Amino acid sequence: MQNSEQVKSYPKALLPIAIFLVLYLGLGITFEYVLHIPMGFYNIPIVAAFMVAILVACLQNRKVPFNDKLEIMAKAVGDRNIFLMILIFICAGMFAGILGRSSASSAAYFLLQFIPAQFSVVVLFVVAAFVSTAMGTSVGTIAVVAPIAVEVAIATGFGVPFCVASVVGGAMFGDNLSFISDTTIAACTTQGCEMKDKFRTNFLIALPAAIVAMVVIMLVSLGTDAKVVNEGSYSLTQLIPYVLVLILAIAGLNVFVVLLVGIVVASFVMVLTGAVNFFGLVGNIGAGISGMYETIMVTILVSAMCGLIRAHGGFAALLDFIHRIFKGHRSGQLGVGLLVSAMDIATANNTVAIVMAAPIAKQMGDEYRISPRKVASLLDTFSCVMQGIIPYGAQMLVALSAIAAAKLDSAYSAFDVIPMMFYPFFLLMSSIVFIIISPKKHRK
C-alpha cells in the first residue's frame, strides 16, 4: 500500500468524501425528517452516491491522465484486504442462501427453549463476542449470527434493530481483541509490539465497555414486555450447519475454512432432509450471493475512491493536520485515536485505516513517549468504534442484508440500528477515560 507520507499534501482531495456524506447523509436526513418520507434513509442508493463521489475524484488533479487514474483505482481494489473481504462476503452469502430462514428460525427457537426471552439479546451479544474472538472476523460472525438475531426478534417481540445491533456490537468486541484478527495483526506489526502486550492494554479498555453494554442491554430487555410470542418448532437436523460453524469458529479455524465447511454441510443437510431439491439449492446459492451485491459493490467503490484520494494527497493532508494539532502525551493519544477514526470514516475498512495511519501514529508515539502497545491498542480500538457505527461499513451492510433476507413487513436502515449500538459508544467512552487517566511514562 502506498505510503501517504510520500505524497504531497492536498486537502481538496478529500472533497469526494464530503460529497458522499452530503449525498447519503444529507438526502437521508432531508427525506426522513424534513420531508417525512417513510424509510427515507432506506431509499437512498448508496452505490449511486459513491459513484458520484468517484466521478468527483476522477475530475480532480487534471495533470494525471484518466487512464492512470483507472490504474490507481484498479490497484486499490486489488489490495489483499479488499479481496479477502469480498471472498468472505461471497461465502457468507452462499451459506445464508443455502440455509434460508427456516434454519435460522430453528436456531432461534432452539435457543429460546433454554434461555428466557428477557435474556436472549444479551446472550446474542455474548455469542457474537465469543465467536468473533475465536474466528478473528466481525464480518464472518455477523453473517452467521445476525440471521438468528432477526428470528429471535420475530419470535420474542424485541425490536429487530435492537437484536441485530447487539450482535454487531459483540462481533466488534471480538474483532478488537482477537489474536488472529487482521486489525490486531496490523496494529501490532506496524508498531513493533507483542500481541500479548497489546491484548492486555486493549482488554482493560474493552472489558468495562462490554460489561456496561451488557448491563444496558439487560435493562432495555427487562423494560420490554418480551416473551415468546410465536411458538415455533425447530429442526435439530437443520441446526447441524450452525452448530458445526460455531464449533469450528471457536476452535480458531480460518474463516474461509469455517464458511466453506458450513456451505458443504448445509448443502447436504438441506437436500437430504428434503427441505430443498438440487435445483432449488442452486437457486438459493445464487440468491444468497445476489444478496451480497450491494455490500460487495460498496467495498469495491470505497476502495477505488480511496485509491484516488490517497494518490491525490487527501490522506496525507489529513495525517499532517492531526500530527500538527495534537502534541503531548495525552493529547497525542487522542490524536492517534482521531487519526485512525478519520481514516476509517474515509476508507470504511478498519484494517486499511490502521495500516494507513500507522506510520504517523508510530512517529507520534516516539515524539510523545507513548508506548507501542498503547499506540497499537488505540489504533485498533478507535478503528473498531468507527467501523461499528458507520452506516456504509461492511459490518453494517452485512447486518442489513440479514434483515433484508428475512423479508419483513417493515424495512430497516442503518440509522435504525445505530442508536442501539451500545458497545461501540461505550468503547469510545472507555477509550477516552483510558487516555485521561493514563500516566505519563517513557516509551517502551
Describe this structure as you would to a colleague:
- The chain has 444 residues and is mainly alpha-helical.
- It contains 20 helices and no strands.
- It is globular and about 60 Å long.
Primary descriptors:
mainly alpha; single chain; 20 helices; 444 residues; disordered N terminus
Low-confidence stretches: 1-5
Give the beta-strand count.
Answer: 0
Largest sheet descriptor: none
Give the CA-CA distance, first to last residue.
Answer: 27 Å
Output the radius of gyration: 22 Å
Mean model confidence by pLDDT: 82
Structural class: mainly alpha
Q: How many helices in DSSP terms?
A: 20
Overall outline? globular
Along the chain, the helix and strand elements come as HHHHHHHHHHHHHHHHHHHH
Strand content: under 5%
The helical percent reads over 70%
